[in-house]
Specification:
By secondary structure, the protein is mainly β. Helix content is 0%, strand content 52%. The protein starts with 9 loop residues before the first strand and ends in a 10-residue tail after the last strand. This is Guanine nucleotide binding protein (G protein), beta polypeptide 1-like.
Length: 328
């Protein structure tokens, strides 16, 4: 390690349940916001200036909230719960109402993936009712786009990432499955482009750098597996990162492509340089499994934060490697 590990700059308490998902919204307005979703079905909207919950909403009948995002063009919140519902919220001007919802039929833990395709238009991908299927719909119309099912048995779909290459208009989707496989799908053609066996255990999480066409995935084992897409859209396995302890809940790459953070089952957050996967810091604060990590989207790099949510019902916020740090 190049320097001693820092302490959290502050913590947020009062979520009342395990913190499954975190999502920042700091790029617009005067108030930076952090959304959190708990295992008790509650969404907290944290004001990062006052460091308090500005609003608390419940919309999943007490079922665990497993994913949160915001629709950039409308500033609407979208949430996914284990009640098999995806809810669209209007939170403007003091409102807190569900204005639309989508029934997924999935009882698993696979988080949705959202892709903005134009002003006011989005694609939403989610695990479907059948074990291996991924469904993609348009929002706000909820029109079906396609259903993707592998032609061989790979087990349950565990994690997905919908994205759009800079070079073309066709959306692509990366998916991790229960047997440890990664698949790249062409959404428009409804076809599999490539496949790789990244792990011997189920793929618990993945993240993908769309600028560098490089991704990384984690499982219950003691390693992270990195991979790239070549010019023929083939998935190619690259380096592995060996971890001290097994189990990763979530992975997140900072927007500038310099840092990777992992949420560990061993109660720790690990920070790596994304370029060389060199370990930079081990962040120790939580007393139970870390379930979620997220980097903030502050426009000013000096204000960027890393948030971690844990089964211990607390959120830690960290300011690390923001200015002039050697993260190569």
């Amino acid at each position: 390690m190049s320097r001693p590990a820092p302490s959290p700059i502050y913590t947020l308490r009062g979520a009342g349940g395990p913190l499954n998902t975190l999502h920042f919204s700091c790029h617009g307005g005067d108030t930076p916001i952090l959304f959190s979703g708990s295992g008790k079905g509650v969404i907290h909207i944290w004001n990062l200036n006052s460091r308090r919950a500005e609003k608390i909403v419940e919309g999943h009948s007490g079922s665990s909230v497993i994913w949160l995002s915001t629709l950039q063009s409308t500033d609407a919140l979208i949430s996914q719960g284990r009640d098999m519902q995806v809810c669209l919220w209007d939170l403007r001007e003091g409102r807190n109402e569900v204005v639309d919802n989508v029934w997924t039929g999935s009882v698993g833990f696979c988080q949705c993936s959202l892709l903005e395709t134009g002003p006011g238009n989005n694609l939403l991908a989610f695990a479907g009712q059948q074990t291996e299927e991924i469904r993609i719909i348009e929002l706000p119309s909820k029109s079906p786009v396609c259903t993707l099912v592998p032609d061989t048995k790979l087990g349950m779909v565990m994690c997905i990432k919908l994205w759009q290459p800079d070079s073309g208009s066709r959306p692509l989707l990366l998916a991790g499955y229960e047997d440890g496989s990664l698949l790249l799908w062409d959404v428009t053609q409804r076809s599999k482009l490539s496949q790789a066996k990244a792990h011997p255990e189920p793929v618990m999480c993945l993240t993908f750098d769309t600028k560098r066409l490089r991704g990384i995935s984690g499982s219950s084992e003691k390693k992270l597996s990195s991979w790239i897409l070549d010019r023929q859209d083939n998935l190619q396995l690259q380096d592995c990162v060996t971890l001290v302890n097994p189990g990763v809940s979530q992975l997140c790459i900072r927007e500038d492509g310099k840092l990777l953070a992992s949420a560990g089952w061993d109660h720790r957050v690990r920070v790596f340089s994304w370029k060389k996967l060199r370990p930079l810091a081990v962040l120790q604060y939580h007393t139970d499994m870390v379930l979620s990590v997220a980097f903030s989207d502050h426009q000013d790099p000096k204000q960027r934060l890393l948030a971690a949510g844990s089964k211990d019902q607390r959120i830690s916020l960290w300011s690390i490697y923001n200015e002039g740090a050697d993260t190569g």
